[in-house]
Structures
1.
Amino acid sequence: MKEGSLLPEKAVVGKSTIDPQLLDSSDWIQAKSFGDLDTALKIVNSTWISSTKKEEDLKRLFKDPMTIIITQPGTSGFNSLPIALAKKLHDEYGPEFINGDKVFISSHSSASKLIPSYQRIFEPRQYTPKDPKKLLNALENRNVVIVEDILTTGGSVAKFQKTLNHLGIPVRGVVSLLGNSRLRIDEKTSQTLRSALTDKQIQIKDSSFIEGMTRTEAGFLIRSLNQVKSEKKIKEFSDKFLKLVDSEKSKADKLKSIRFDHNLKNITTNINTSDNTSNFSHKELLKQFSGQVIENQKNKLDSQKEKLAIIAFQGMKIRVEFSSQKDRGQFIKNSIFSDIAKVTHIDDALIAATLNNTIIKSGKDINETDKRLSNSFDQFKSIDPEKHSFMMLTKKDYSKPVIFDLKSHSAREAVLKQIDVLRIEDLKATRLNNFNNITIKASREGQIVTTNIKDALRTKILSFQQEQKANMSKTPDPHQVKKPATKKDNIDMGLSR
Amino acid sequence: MEKYTIESDWPDNFEGFPVKELFTVLKEINSPGGTKAPESKIIAMRHFIHKYKIGVHGLKSQKGEIAI
């Protein structure tokens, strides 16, 4: 895993012992539950115990000017302690900070402090960015340090770190006023947990769930597992645990998809065909961008007066501004019919099809009715994946990949006999819009190929970027359209995390 | 300091829920046992306290704080 994608091993903590008297004091309650910042500042200054080691750790943490603090979003909406600590760190070490409560929405049903420590793992925290675009723009190329008031199990910080990580924001450190500094699960605890799970015959497919836990959370889980003896209790525990793992996975997918959308927007490119300096022709543009129009519907083209079109090309959204409506119409007409005919590789087909989310519904025979993204997605969502059979079909040259809903398995089998197909083996309807993790088993010339959309996209985008970089250093092509003003050189799709 | 006082200039309803009920949700979240309210209601409550700058959302921006 990349640095910054793991939970930091240790937090810098102002005071490791948690004094129950302090937590019961009226000042603490005023700061923690009533949002009294002045009192919070007073508590932070009187509680934080300085040491040379801590100062060195903090100096190291904040040495990079790109480091920024985000305070841990709370559940109560009234906790000013993390903000007070962030302010202290800013005054002493200089990093800017963001009030996490202002930029993240937490949708928990109960405040952590009211849940017994051993149960907290089953009440996971959930954070959703309020305005993903603004947040991701503000944090582009920044390293984040999370600031919290108290680390008991560290679970909330771990979940917030994961949230940021799935959004592609690296977390370099955690600073807390009080609590246990040991965060990341160590190898020994991880092994013990795995053994405890195996003993109870609980198998989890995705080991990243365990890697993302804190050491204390894992300890509580091991103890709980050891207490579960009867078959019935084991079954209950197993169901609860696996449900939790699944729900974490689905939250992660949602966040990754926010990130992916943001990156797609970031690499949107502008091409102005009315620029006299570019020797533009539709043919050449098509040659260069053998993508398809993704934000227009064919039947609406003639009535639209804009001179813009958005085309998809190898995972990029490209915005093309035409000199006239006629030019645009001509281009769109051509690109729809040429569509992705230039696809020469299986990955291109998958990417193009996935971006397009093209669905063709068929009855007994394949009667193509192209339903484009804007209206087909809802239809697709409403289809029960258990009762239908989906597959992706292409022509023999792998052009025109489309997703078919063949209504019945027998219809699907009948088609399979006749056509060289890309078969979707693992596609759930609800996951279509969240295609990062879809693995497709595809048949190509008799050979079975397994392609992961995420990897395919990443490879394609990175190779395209490299190609673009190389092209930029060469003499401009006579057919070159206006050079895109784009951030694509800087983007890190981060899809590997 | 009273946390859950409803101000007269706030709307009666917000995102389809009575503001009174949103405050009940906030109260329940901060009480043992938590709330049984659906997620949509919890989120509406969050949006409300963001919008009307309640609790830490209403804190004045501090030196070094970046507003997004």
Note: Chain B touches chain A through 32 residues (CB under 8 Å).
2.
Amino acid sequence: MDARWADLPKVTQEISAYLPDTQVIEKITKAQARANMRMEAAKLAEQTLKQEKIHQQHLGNRCRTLAASIISASIVAGGIWMAFLSLINVRNRRSEIGILSAVGVGSGQIIKLFLFKSIIVGLLGAVLGCFIGLLAVMKINDPAIKSSSLSFAQIFSWRLGLLIVICVTVLAAVAGWLPAFMAAEQDPAETLRQD
Amino acid sequence: MLQLDRVQKTYTYKKQQIYALRQVTLQLDRGSFVAVCGPSGCGKSTMLFAAGGLLRPDDGVVKIDETNLYAISAEKRAQYRAAEIGFVFQEFHLVPYLNVLDNVLAASLALEGIHRQIKIDLRDRAQELIERFKLTDRLSHVPSKLSTGEQQRTALARALLNQPRLLLADEPTGNLDDKNTEVVCQHLAEYAANGGMVLLVTHDLRVASYANDIVQMSDGTILADIADI
């Protein structure tokens, strides 16, 4: 509010105190009215701006939450798919497990063979997946086609990348180890018969 | 010497018990070639698998010389199989993505931690077997590029790589033509003549005629030694 008008209620109160029977009438000039309107408009604009900022903040939070959910869902779905593929791969290689077992390759050695392959495939898949994902996001986020692009630090987190690589590798290892272990622990004749 | 003493094996299928082997007793000495004949489902293959340490029987003893196969751990039994037992199957069971040489050498994978010189010797022996079974020009071919006869000869070479005491053959000629049947049977007979033991399962009496001894099986029991009839 304009400083000149800030003390008006106080002045009115003081006059009423000294002259109790006096009626104080405030007469506003056109200039004062315009000044008042400007002040009101400024106040409103300030409030609107504040609300817009809060709204934008909420929207940003929602976007971040949505992105986090999509990323989490993608990681889980990718992990399940990866585990499923490893499982299918080992199931398809049951006959190979049976043959190796029949010629005398021990279950420990067979499990090692399959575990090694699963770890290598999981590791390569995770690193390649992160790399392709990063390239795709960088392409979408290209400053040449997008007005408000994100920085590299906002796009990629080393921590998240490392977590994905570790999780996928561990998952692939477990998915490869479990069926190989089950097949290798069976009598070789049973494994060959199921082929 | 291979000894099967009152070996029993039962399978459960849809809550129904199927007796595959009923108190089977059999003995093979060094240099013997025994053929087991009988109709499908009479337990021939089950007996062969049990004799080779591939299938644990429910009861009874399987011994090769002084080793009781099912009294040792699975890992030791696998090592024993690698060193002393060779297998030839009707479906060949070759590793599909390995070439002929690597398939023959697959048996050496089992001999973990062996000396480098032994590995070289095994490679030489594999080459020698490949030459003997006329597979030299197929050395780098994978099983899908081989004829059935060539696949079975590869399987036979693999079975003989570690110079086993016992050779077990499950219908090895079931998918072969006459010429390849003769080749395989002659090699089995030759192996037995050189002091090995051969136990062959077949329903073809022509193939069984290569053996020194033929036994008849029916419904999980050895009926009679045909040679004795």
Note: Chain A touches chain B through 20 residues (CB under 8 Å).
